[in-house]
Design brief:
single chain, alpha/beta, Spore Coat Polysaccharide Biosynthesis Protein SpsA, Chain A, elongated
Length: 286
């Protein structure tokens, strides 16, 4: 068993050493071969100085703040093992459980294993949009997704690299990789974890990042399963045309033929576009 642990780091001067020490201690004496790759993302505090003093890790430094997703992708590229484990540097995730996750991942021959967070330390203001996004993503993928964007997960490097062109540079990377794996019907499992209280200030921007999540969910569904969008929209327009026709015929005694025809034609066009898009996706997967 082997794993490359990738830790994106930005302004975590107070927590990064503790995070790395916890990871090292968890693997100490185990049968698991591992490496730790810390990607310093242009911090404005003393994170780089603290990281530089830590031994037996690989350190990558971005010239400027390039984003959470960018840092993870950069870490994946230099990873020497075929499995990747990502975690945060802020003390919220149970890094001491990494060996347990690696064994579970290996024993069950999984493609991705995700830590499903409890909601205790997730801020109340972020819970409603997170729940809605999770429900929407579950509909799009056709699977129940217990946790869309947990940052504590292990996955196969080859699949992640295959999806890398569509993985964003920001915090939405975890959401996108979740949808990508589910859409490709890969073997995924969830294990409950405790989600600790964050030390320091969160880097997430609730409104902007939530809108980015929606954009990426739409982008992902068009990439993997376009009929999930085109078919319901086509049916909605068809039913609207039928409703308008029936109402105008029976109530107004004058058929709104132009409106009805426009809606029907639009419905057929959208359905046909969906079929073509679905055919392109399926042909690309052959």
């Amino acid at each position: 068993m082997e794993v490359s642990v990738v830790v994106p780091v930005y302004n975590e001067q107070h927590m990064i050493k503790e995070t790395i020490d916890t990871i090292k201690e968890s693997f100490k004496g185990s049968e698991i071969r591992y490496e730790i790759i810390a990607v310093e993302d242009g911090s404005s505090d003393d994170t780089w100085e603290v990281l530089s003093a830590i031994e037996d890790i690989i350190i990558i430094r971005n010239k400027k703040n390039s984003g959470y997703g960018y840092s993870i992708k950069k870490g994946m590229k230099v990873a020497k093992y075929k499995n990747i484990f990502i975690t945060d540097a802020d003390g919220t995730y149970p890094n001491e459980r990494m060996p347990e996750f690696v064994r579970y991942f290996h024993d069950n021959n999984l493609d991705m294993l995700v830590g499903r967070r409890d909601r205790k330390n997730i801020p109340l203001i972020r819970r409603p949009p997170k729940a809605f996004l999770r429900k929407f993503a579950s509909y799009i993928s056709g699977f129940d997704i217990p946790d869309l964007n947990s940052g504590f997960r292990m996955f196969r490097k080859d699949y992640a690299i295959a999806f890398s062109k569509m993985l964003p540079d920001g915090f939405s990377l975890t959401s996108t990789i979740t949808l990508s794996f589910f859409s490709e019907k890969l073997d995924i499992d969830y294990v409950p974890i405790k989600y600790g209280k964050r030390e320091g200030k969160s880097k997430i921007r609730p409104i902007k990042d939530t809108m980015a999540f929606f954009h990426l969910i739409w982008k992902t569904v068009f990439y993997f399963n376009p009929l999930k969008i085109f078919l319901p929209l086509s049916i909605l327009l068809f039913l609207s045309a039928l409703g308008i026709f029936s109402y105008s015929f029976f109530k107004l005694e004058k058929v709104m033929d132009i409106t009805t025809i426009v809606l029907l034609l639009t419905s057929v066009q959208i359905f046909c576009i969906g079929l073509v898009a679905d055919l392109i996706v399926k042909r690309g997967n052959i």
